[in-house]
Amino acid sequence: MRVGIVGLGLIGGSLGLALRRLRHAIDVTGVARQAESAAEAIQRGAVDRASTDLAELSDCDIVVIATPIEEIAGVMERLAPIVGANALITDVASVKRPVLAWAQRLPNPSRFLGGHPVAGKTRSGLRESDAEIFDHEPWIFTPAEGQDVRRFDTWFEMVRAIGASVSFMRPDLHDEQMAFLSHLAFVVSSAYAQTVKRQADETLGGPGYRGMVRLAGGDPAMYEAISRENRDALVDAIDRFDAVLHQYRQRISAGTRVKDLFGGAVHAGR
């Protein structure tokens, strides 16, 4: 089995490391934007071979696009005439509706299946790659309406073998869920960090402060692209959070039923 990975950052590099740890005969080819990244991926053991040329993926059975979301459409377009007629294509983006729309331009859209490993770290990049990053984490697949995904069964087996749990969801529902579970968290962390920076001495902050601002240290360019591609769902999530925060303000200001409010939040997180 030959697997190609386009984009050798945190997720692409981690995927390569994880696949190469399996006992199956899996050959991993990587494509990076820069020759230095390709060389580093080989040195780290994330790939068997790597270059900056998509043509290296011509013999792959499955190609995983792990680039920033704004590059996916262009990669798909360039991949289409390169990979074999039976080769499968998937991705790892955290927003799925636009990716599915771009895939419809492929000569055979059914060869593409959107995917999202719900895994990551605050810091990005190949140097942060970790073969165990997918352990016990969901890997959500988002088929097009009526798509037969059985041709991807071997890929599902590999995803499970590297520790992830496979699930399926409509692309629109996925994006709505991620707006609340992931994208809103970055927005809140960033807004909190910005508020504290203006009003308090950050050096006095303890574990609670550090936990709250951790996500704000993520890649701003990545979240800008996510915010653009998942704008409506994220705005809805922000509005709903704003309404709840306003409720907290009212209760705290009035000094009534504050314990009930905080207690409800604890139970909601279980």
Structural description of this entry:
- This protein has helices at 10-21, 35-44, 72-79, 97-103, 153-161, 171-199, 207-213, 220-229, 231-254, 258-268, and strands at 2-6, 27-31, 49-51, 62-65, 88-91, 112-117, 138-142, 165-168.
- With 270 residues, the chain is an alpha/beta fold.
- It folds into two domains: 2-169, Rossmann fold (3-Layer(aba) Sandwich), CATH 3.40.50; 174-268, 6-phosphogluconate dehydrogenase C-terminal fold, CATH 1.10.3660.10.
- The longest helix has 29 residues, at 171-199.
Concise overview:
By secondary structure, the chain is α/β, with parallel strands linked by helices.
Set down the secondary structure blueprint:
Blueprint: E1 2-6, H1 10-21, E2 27-31, H2 35-44, E3 49-51, E4 62-65, H3 72-79, E5 88-91, H4 97-103, E6 112-117, E7 138-142, H5 153-161, E8 165-168, H6 171-199, H7 207-213, H8 220-229, H9 231-254, H10 258-268
Parallel strand pairs: 1-2, 1-4, 2-3, 4-5, 5-6, 7-8
Antiparallel strand pairs: 6-7
Keywords:
2 domains, single chain, eight-stranded mixed β-sheet, 270 residues, 6-phosphogluconate dehydrogenase C-terminal fold, alpha/beta, 47% helix, Rossmann fold
CATH class call of the largest domain: Alpha Beta
User: How many distinct folded domains?
Assistant: 2
Architecture of the largest domain, CATH level 2?
3-Layer(aba) Sandwich
CATH 4th-level superfamily of the largest domain: NAD(P)-binding Rossmann-like Domain
Class computed from helices, strands and strand pairing: alpha/beta
| CA distance, first residue to last residue | 41 Å
Computed over alpha carbons, the radius of gyration is 21 Å
Our count of helices gives 10
| Sheet with the most strands, sense and barrel status | 8 strands, mixed
Main β-sheet, spatial strand arrangement: 3-2-1-4-5-6-7-8
Q: How much of the residues is beta strand, in percent? A: 5-15%
**Poorly predicted residue ranges:** none
Give me the strand/helix succession: EHEHEEHEHEEHEHHHHH
In the CATH scheme, what's the topology name of the largest domain? Answer: Rossmann fold
The shape, in one word, is globular
Rounded mean pLDDT is: 94
Number of strand segments = 8
